[in-house]
Write a structure and sequence with these properties.
Number of helices: 4
Largest sheet: none
Shape: elongated
Radius of gyration: 21 Å
Number of strands: 0
Structural class: mainly alpha
């Protein structure tokens, strides 16, 4: 018998999927569903949100879709440019205030 899921002797790897399931259950169980179709629709909506809209701190506040499709570096570079520009603009504004 071969080990199929996770890494042998590494229970941390199972924690990620367990956390995902707990997050999904916390959202899905808030409503009452009267048909299987409603439950499936709610789960599809959650998966769409989780993969394409929710930022994950563990992957540099990116969505899993951004990382999967290779957009992560472009997004991080854009954030860095915006941060640099913002800091430069703030410094100019503070210098103007200090001169007057």
């Amino acid at each position: 018998m071969d080990h199929v899921r996770g890494a042998p002797a590494h229970p941390q790897t199972q924690g990620k999927i367990e956390r995902y399931h707990r997050t999904m259950k916390n959202v899905i169980k808030l409503d009452n569903y009267f048909s299987l179709g409603q439950l499936e629709q709610s789960m599809d909506t959650f998966v769409e949100y989780y993969n394409h809209k929710r930022y994950h701190e563990s992957i540099n506040n990116l969505t899993p879709a951004d990382v999967f499709y290779g957009r992560s570096q472009r997004i991080l570079n854009r954030r860095k440019r915006v941060k640099t520009k913002t800091l430069r603009d703030r410094k100019k504004q503070n210098q103007k205030l200090n001169v007057n």
